[in-house]
Design brief:
With 460 residues, this protein is mostly helical. The chain folds into 3 domains: 123 residues, Arc Repressor Mutant, subunit A (Orthogonal Bundle), CATH 1.10.10; 178 residues, no CATH class; 73 residues, no CATH class. The protein is extended, with a radius of gyration of 35 Å.
């Protein structure tokens, strides 16, 4: 089946748009909702997006994309408008689907299986995870050796061993290519400190200490390699075991007939046996590539250290980076250049001629124009400075573990406390706030500030 018969045509368009970073972060929020919730409601997803990506939403501009979707640009100017526009965008591009609850108009979010797979791939690429090579080897041995006690699961044991072997080979090849990636970056480095940083902070810390060193010192491959090959050879010589694997595969609708099952069983057994028979050669190739990188890195460091380090060489290196702002500023601060002037008989002097002050034309009085844009800009600045997260942290400190508190119990020692308290009273009316506000009559004085009297209670 062709790929785009399953995936919509515009599926990958959000990953090439101007706001692609925001869309990727939104997909990660959607993935987290999928991991934690069985039913994802549209309103709840919008609240999660606004809470997690609030600062990114303020900087994002969806006006062009709204025009492409035939939507009004004014609808995507607010925080909630941008969140709901993003949900609509994910729906039109095929990342999510909308369904209604029975006997209601409540909208729920469903995620197609292909979208879940792509989101997991994107998330894995953005995370630096540790490769567990030895776990694949042990899992293969454990699956094969368990057949002695559970002969009814011999097909599952062979399938699990085959999958772990395939993943082991993929991970070893990935390690091999990652070493090559660092190797190719060596000639492009012209700074010894940068080359050392990449070697010790990147290559050694993230690849050698975590992956290569355990691969060479932990003896899981030599320990389990021969038992795995021995078990597989015994299965190849035992017709009863082969028939049992085929029959279990047919019973689980994996094989159509015994001929296909027998051929596929022999293929999996041969692949696992051949892999562990030649895995030492693969590790030797990785070892050779590692030694190549070390030698090339040392040679390049020696070359940079032995190059012209005199005044001329240093000046050349300095001029190469003169376009960088930090280098240019350092040069300006370091070079002490002064301008000298003196008078002599050839110096010219022109006496200042004074003029009488004339009456000028007074400035015309202009009427003040509508300053709504200026006010909106000021409010946007306040929203960026005092986010919901900062307000919630202040209110949590006011509660101090209590179920409720009143205005009289608040300590207002500085202007920021006064502003956060007022914003906290407004946020108490929002749906996603963790508390609610009941206003009382009158105000109360606190350190020179007049605060509205109210009672704050935690929501159940």
């Amino acid at each position: 089946m062709k790929l785009f018969s399953l995936i919509p045509d515009r599926f990958f368009s959000i990953l090439t748009s101007r706001n692609k970073e925001l869309y990727v972060q939104a997909l990660f929020v959607l993935r987290q909702a999928f991991k934690t919730e069985l039913v994802i409601r549209r309103e709840d997803l919008a609240a999660m997006l606004m809470d997690s990506l609030q600062d990114d939403f303020y900087r994002a501009d969806f006006s062009d994309e709204a025009g492409e979707e035939n939507e009004d640009a004014a609808d995507v100017s607010t925080l909630s408008g941008k969140a709901f526009f993003l949900i609509r965008k994910l729906k039109t591009t095929g990342w999510i689907e909308i369904e209604y609850e029975s006997r209601s108009f409540e909208e729920n979010i469903t995620i197609p299986d292909y979208a879940i797979s792509v989101m997991n791939v994107l998330y894995d690429l953005s995370q630096e995870r540790v490769r567990e090579y030895n776990s694949y080897v042990y899992a293969t041995y454990a699956a094969l050796s368990s057949v002695t006690e559970n002969p009814d699961y011999v097909y599952q044991a062979l399938s699990a061993a085959y999958r772990n072997t395939v993943e082991l080979v993929d991970e070893l090849k990935s390690l091999f290519n990652n070493i090559r990636r660092y190797y190719r970056r060596i000639p492009g480095e012209s700074d010894v400190n940068e080359l050392l940083r990449e070697h010790f902070d990147e290559y050694k810390a993230k690849l050698i200490d975590i992956v290569y060193y355990p691969l060479k010192t932990i003896d899981s491959v030599p320990r389990f390699r021969h038992p795995i090959i021995r078990i597989l050879n015994e299965w190849l010589l035992d017709e009863e075991v082969l028939k049992l694997i085929v029959s279990q595969g047919i019973a689980r609708k994996v094989y159509k007939d015994s001929e296909e099952g027998h051929e596929e069983t022999l293929r999996m057994i041969s692949y696992i046996a051949d892999t562990y028979d030649s895995i030492e050669e693969m590790i030797d190739e990785i070892d050779h590539r590692h030694n190549q990188y070390i030698n090339a890195s040392i040679d390049h460091i020696r070359y940079l250290m032995n190059s012209d380090r005199g005044v001329k060489g240093r000046l050349i290196e300095l001029l190469k980076h003169a376009g960088e702002e930090e280098v240019l500023k350092t040069m300006s601060d370091s070079l002490r250049v002064y301008r000298h002037q003196f008078y002599d008989q050839r110096s010219l002097y022109q006496k200042v001629q004074r003029r009488e002050r004339e009456e000028g034309t007074p400035l015309s009085v202009e009427e003040l124009k509508d300053q709504s844009e200026l006010v909106e800009s000021f409010l946007d600045g306040v929203r960026r400075q005092y986010t919901n997260k900062k307000i919630d942290e202040y209110m949590s400190a006011c509660f101090a573990g209590r179920r409720q508190f009143s205005t009289e119990e608040v300590r207002c020692e500085k202007t920021e406390d006064f502003i956060l308290f007022l914003l906290g009273t407004l946020r108490g009316k929002e749906k996603n706030a963790f508390y609610e506000v009941e206003f009382l009559s009158g105000n109360t004085e606190c350190s020179g500030y007049s605060l509205p009297r109210a009672i704050f209670r935690r929501k159940e």
